[in-house]
Amino acid sequence: MTPLPPNSTIGILGGGQLGRMTALAAANLGYLTHIYAPEADSPAFDVTRFYTCAAYDDLPALAAFASSVDVITLEFENIPIATLEYVQRFKPVYPQPTCVEVTQDRLLEKQFAHSQGCNTAPFMPVNSAEDLAAALQQLSGGILKTRRMGYDGKGQWRLTGDEDPAMLWWNIQQPCILEGLVDFACEVSVIAARGIDGTVVCFPVTENAHRQQVLHTSTVPASISTATAQAAIAAATRLINALQLVGLLAVEMFVSRSGDVLINELAPRPHNSGHWTMEACQTSQFEQLVRACTGLPLGDTGLLTASAVMQNLLGDDATHAPLLQNPNARLHLYGKTESKPGRKMGHVTFLTAQHR
After folding, report:
1. pLDDT tens across 313-336, in order?
2. DSSP secondary structure string for all residues of 174-243
3. In sequence order, which residues have a C-beta less than 8 Å from that of residue 266 and are 6 or more positions away?
4. How many secondary structure helices (H) and strands (E) does the chain include?
5. Residue 328: C-alpha distances to residues 277, 307, 350 (Å)
6. ∠ Cα 121 81 240 (to 5°)
7. What distance in Å separates the CA atoms of residue 171 and residue 168, rounded to the nearest whole number?
8. How far apart are CA 83 and CA 196, in angstroms?
9. What is the C-alpha to C-alpha distance for residues 240 and 249, in angstroms, rounded to an integer?
10. How many C-beta atoms surround the C-beta of residue 100 within 10 A?
């Protein structure tokens, strides 16, 4: 397709920090943005010319929004599918609703990964107390996750196998998946991008460390072998092609002690573990999303620095002065007005010397 010309408008569903940083990247390429979100204090509203504050089931508001833009994308995968299908009547939506539907459901994700020849942790669907009892016995405990919603450790419970399934289910009462524990060496992620023409490029493999089930740091290059890195990139490429997804697909993976990669979760959007790309790559993940959705050529994902470490800033950790005393620090605060323990308020990326 002919790329959208400058001054075209990109509609973004969702007004959090990912929408905010996508809007800033769009502005650098000469595009306008229109943010649609139900929360009045959405951080993305601060950096866009147009915004709509309305519910995701407000059809008149959605129609007005979709009619005012040239293409539509999203900043998180839990937008209702009915919303995506409705606005798709007006303008192209990338990633497509069929892709998002798979990534909204942890069971469908796992089944999809297996259908493409990728390995995962062992898993079993859980739809009743009886299912949970059988799964706990077969997997000897594991991580119980709600199939839908949930992020940063929410909607997840680590089980030993000694729990009372009936009591657990009484408190949950929604479709879940029990995933067996994996003895992994590290956790990594790959962000793949796919254009409208089917071109795929991947960012370098990132090594991730979590604290209390929330991402703490992302480090590149990852401390894995070349063969494992190639396998991770190959898996992400295979998955985004199989979905025929236009946009970004973040693929979180476990690396086993033997160097094998196991697919953990998928996200069809910019990802927390890719924030370091804003300073350390030729093209950031946010610019790459804009390029993909507007029909522009995908950008080079090569590193500009020898290494980078991104650290999330949670709650009161998001303070200017101490961080900016480090000349290698690149600080991003998200404009959130209320600081809460564990809430992502910003991030900082520490860079090494640039390549010469």
Report:
1. 988 776 766 788 888 999 999 988
2. S-EEEE----EEEEEEEEEEE-TT--EEEPPPEEEEEETTEEEEEEES-SS-HHHHHHHHHHHHHHHHHH
3. 102, 103, 109, 112, 113, 239, 249, 250, 251, 252
4. 11, 17
5. 15, 11, 5
6. 45
7. 5
8. 22
9. 6
10. 23
pTM over 0.90: yes
Question: What pLDDT was estimated at residue 353?
Answer: 65
Question: Mutual orientation of helices 106-115 and 226-243 as an angle, nearest 10°?
Answer: 110
Listed residue (303, 305, 270) closest to 286, CA to CA: 270
Cα 283 to Cα 189, 233, 272, 287: the distances in Å are: 17, 17, 16, 6
The residue count for the chain: 356
The answer to whether the bond into 95 is cis (omega within 30° of 0) is yes
Per-range mean pLDDT, top range of 19-23, 134-138, 212-216: 19-23
Residue type, 42: S
Residue type, 31: Y
Residue for token digits 């504050």? Answer: 53
Which residues on neighbouring strands pair with residue 53, listed in sequence order? 37
